[in-house]
Structure formats: C-alpha cells, structure tokens
Amino acid sequence: MRTVGVEEELLLVDATGGAPRAVSGAALRFEAARTRTEPAPDDSSPGGTLGPELQQQQIETDTTPCTDLADLARQLRMWRTRADDAARSAGARAVALATSPLPVAPQTTVKPRYQRMAEHFGLTTVEQLTCGCHVHVGVDSEDEAVAVADRVRIWLPALLAISANSPYWQQVDSGYASFRSQAWTRFPTAGPTEIFGSAEAYRQRVSAMINSGTVLDAGMIYFDVRPSDQYSTVEFRTADVCMRVEDAVLIAALCRAMVDTAVQAWRSGEPAEPASVIMLRLASWRAGRSGTADQLLDPYSWVPKPAGEVLARLVGHCRGALRQAGDEELVDSGIARVLADGTGATRQRMINRQTGDLSAVVHDAIGVTHRQV
Predict the structure, then answer these.
(1) pTM attached to this predicted model
(2) Between residues 38 and 193, which one has the greater pLDDT?
(3) How many domains does one find in the chain?
(4) CATH number for the domain harbouring residue 35
C-alpha cells in the first residue's frame, strides 16, 4: 500500500486576543530544548518535526509516511499538540486557520532564502501569511509522479473546496471560502499546469523556469501538484490547512486513491484528460469562492453542478482504489460530513454571526484544532 504523509502549516496567535504573534523562533527554541531530552528518533524516514515557515507568525509540522490512516490521524493530532505546547511557551497558541481573521503585519522569518524571496517578490512575499495542507503520496519513480500529476489535475479544485478554511483577510470577510487560494496564486509559479507527458519534459520545464530568473530555486515550483524535489512522492499542494483533523485525513485518503487510480490508468495506456489550464483556473476559482456551499465546475463538462454531485463524481472516479485500501467508508462518511456540516470557512462565519467577534472565531478554531469543542 502506498504511503501518505501530511505537512500542516499552523498559525501562531496570541493566547488571549487571538491576533497572530511572531513567536516561531521562541517556539522552535522550546521544541529544540525539549527534543534534546528525548530518545533519539529513528531517522530512517522523513517527517516528524516542527519547523519554521515563511513568516514568524506560523509554524510547520510534518508526519512520517503512513500506510494506516488511523496512524496518520494520530500523528496529526500529536504534532498539533506539540506545536501548541511550543507556542504556549511563548504566550501563544497554534491554530489550524489558513488565514488570520484578525489584522496582522506579517514578519518574514530571518532566513536567507526567505529574505531573498521578500526582496525578489516584494509585497507578494511580505503579505503572504497563509497556511496550507500538503499531502505526499509515495510513488515508484519520477515518471510515475509526472504521470500522476498529469492525470489528477482536473480533480484538485474539489480538494480545495473540501478544505476551504480562509474566509477572512485583515479583519474583512473576503467573500471567498478560501481566500488563501487567491493570495497564494500571486506567486508566478502557483496554480494548475499543463500536461507534461514525461519526467524529462517536466525537468526541462522546471529548468527553463529557473533559468528565466523569475524563480529562485526548485523549491519555488509551487504547482498545485508536483513531483517532490526531496522525496519519492508526488505532492498535492492545493488544500487549505483544515480546521478538523478528520478533514485533513479525508484529503489524504482522496489523494492516495487518486494516485492509485492515476497510476493504473497510466500503466494501461489511458491518456490524461486534455483540460486546458484556463478551465482549471476557473474551476479552482469557483472552488475557492464557495467551497462546498454552492456549485463547483464539473471536470468533464466544465459547467456548474452542485458541489455534492462533483464530489460524488470524484469519489466514484477512485472508488476502486478506496475500496482496495480499506478507505471507502472513511471517505464516504467524510464527504457526507463536509456536505452536512460545511467546511472550516462555514464554521468561522457561523461563529462570527453568533458573536460578532473575530477573536471568538479564532478561539473557537483553537478548540476545534485541538478537539476541545
């Protein structure tokens, strides 16, 4: 069975008022001191760490590769707790929000690469305080990874819709369920891609992008899905960080099933769907605008359909892989839950309607992040 691992970017917020706080350095020093007192980890597999991110008001966690989704859920909860413990040491909390509901002046992490990004991309970097959920699924080769990326790209807007968790930006309701998806695509490499066809074609395209001087390095290839430049995985990068661990696990299960389905199609000689980047951008915009609360673009007809129909089509597309992995019931119940209860964006807006207080939105999200409500 393929492995799956998840990276989560978490917001660091004031424990009392809920506004973002630039305390990642202090939190990571606490984590480093704690780590020195623990038994040495097994370094045979990647993941299982806390680390810095672009801005000092956020922190990143990552799980080790898992085959069992119950283990993945356990690790996600454990790393959220660990990040929160580190944040508490600096008077803050770690919360799974993809943007801050409250006003913030992001402070870029003092790291040469991030400072170069701030110089090179200006306000796009300086204002970029967003938190995503990145899913890594194991593959056998770079050719397999590119074949997967070519075949899953039409379904990525559906993952964005499920994960939408960023309706607020600088104390304003953006009108989007995922405003992170709007802010993030200001980077020139972010978003959907054309069909590459082979690993060699992919490498040539990445090399040309770097040689253009627009992209600083291979780590800035911010495609919605890409072969990892560090691991033997394909990396899905489209989702907001999910407020609920259960939704993050749902996204991971769908990603693994999509990979299995795509690999089977590739090995059978089935071509990738020839969707244009233009239509993929429209589908992503629609998903970011309303999440699962309204219509999504059907990835075959490119006309609006109820979100439930499009999500059912995604599940149907990879049902065989879900069944083989033993994930069918988890995904069916997860999709039903999201459609009934809404996304993280739905909950944020509900709390704001009830309280008229964006600080309350943040504190409620802290409770959901750590299963306290």
Answers:
(1) 0.97
(2) 193
(3) 1
(4) 3.30.590.20
What residue spans of the chain are helical by DSSP H? 24-36, 69-88, 112-121, 123-126, 142-152, 156-163, 180-184, 199-211, 245-267, 277-290, 307-317, 319-325, 328-341, 344-355, 358-369
**Parent domain of 104:** 4-369
305 vs 44, higher pLDDT: 305
| CA–CA gap between residue 50 and residue 115 (Å, rounded) | 21
Q: Is the pLDDT of residue 41 over 70?
A: no
Which residues have CB under 8 Å from 139's CB, separation 6+?
A: 2, 145, 148, 227, 232, 233, 234, 259, 263
The answer to whether residues 60 and 51 touch, using CB atoms and an 8 Å cutoff, is yes
Q: Identify the H or E element spanning 136.
A: strand 132-138
Query: Whole-angstrom Cα distance, residue 148 to residue 258?
Result: 8
- pLDDT score for 188: 96
Report yes or no: 254 and 242 within 8 Å, Cβ to Cβ: no
* Cβ count near 145 (within 10 Å): 25
The tally of CA atoms less than 13 A away on the side-chain side of residue 203 is 6
Tokens 């074949």 belong to residue: 147
Distance between CA atoms of residues 330 and 352, nearest Å: 30
Strand partners, 169: 172
- Check residue 15 and report its DSSP letter: T
How many angstroms separate the Cα of 217 from the Cα of each of 8, 137, 195, 206? 22, 23, 22, 9
Question: Measured between alpha carbons, how far is 246 from 211 in angstroms, rounded to an integer?
Answer: 41
